Amino acid sequence: MFEDLNIDGMKRMWGRKVSDLGFAQFLEIMQYVAFKRGVIFGQCARFERTTQKCSGCKHKQSVELRERVFHCQNEHCGLILDRDHNAAINILYAGASASGLRGASDSFGSSLVCPQDNPVG
Question: Model pTM?
Answer without folding.
Answer: 0.60
